Amino acid sequence: MTTPDATTSDDAPVFRLAFVPGVTPGKWVRIWEQRRPDVPLELVALDVADCAEAIGQGRVQMAITRLPDALGHGDAGAHHSIDLYEETTVVVVPKDHVLTAGDEMTLADLADEQLLWPLDEPLTVPQPPGSAVSHRPESTGDAIELVAAGIGVLLVPQSLARLHHRKDLVHRPVTDAPTSTVGLLWPQPTSDLADEFIGIVRGRKTTSSRGRSDEAPKRSAREKAAAKRAAREAAGKIPGKSARRSGRSKRR
């Protein structure tokens, strides 16, 4: 059983894909446009905290988000999820900060620091280092502004540090910090379009897509043997009937 895919106002199918800051779905979108020009893919930018609710309410058919963080906000209802890749965790600090002396660090190196923890929670750290700044900024972008103002430092996935890059800030990897997992989140049961996008993300070729009604039927053992013999005859590896006939005509 599959769920119906989203439709536009004129009942043409459309696939709505949510993505969170720092995620770059461009490659997968381009492949979708090549394979399914008949189904527009609509990108919806969401914060991690809004993804579960968007899935549960059917406002999007799939989300590329951070897991399991996204599931800690709102109700996704019956759903599936798969992990795609791990992101390196970095600390964002002012360019002249003492922590910039090293190429990488550990959580222990942050013991004396004031840390900012934005409300959009791009990273979950069970045992946070240092001391928490009492004010919690609304978003990672707001937290970056506070780092630049010297209010504190910030632990985030590396993609977000790059997204909010500033010339007066730098970031360094924190080798023992928890990592962030980027993954796919979608409702149960899996729709045909959702399955198609999963195949694209996993590198599934067009000919190997599941559920295709135009998939070529499997050949019997006799058909496979006949095809193999025909291929060898065409390559001249074994004499075919035409070769034997031409041989007899030459002896006459």
UniProtKB/TrEMBL annotation:
The keyword Transcription regulation applies. Residues 242-252 have a biased composition (Basic residues). Pfam families: LysR_substrate (PF03466). Residues 211-235 have a biased composition (Basic and acidic residues). Keywords: Activator, DNA-binding, Transcription, Transcription regulation. Residues 16-202 form the LysR substrate-binding domain. Residues 204-252 are annotated as: Disordered. Signal peptide: none annotated. CDD domains: PBP2_LTTR_aromatics_like (cd08414). The keyword Transcription regulation applies. Belongs to the LysR transcriptional regulatory family. PANTHER family: HCA OPERON TRANSCRIPTIONAL ACTIVATOR HCAR (PTHR30346:SF0), TRANSCRIPTIONAL DUAL REGULATOR HCAR-RELATED (PTHR30346). This is LysR family substrate-binding domain-containing protein. It comes from Gordonia tangerina.
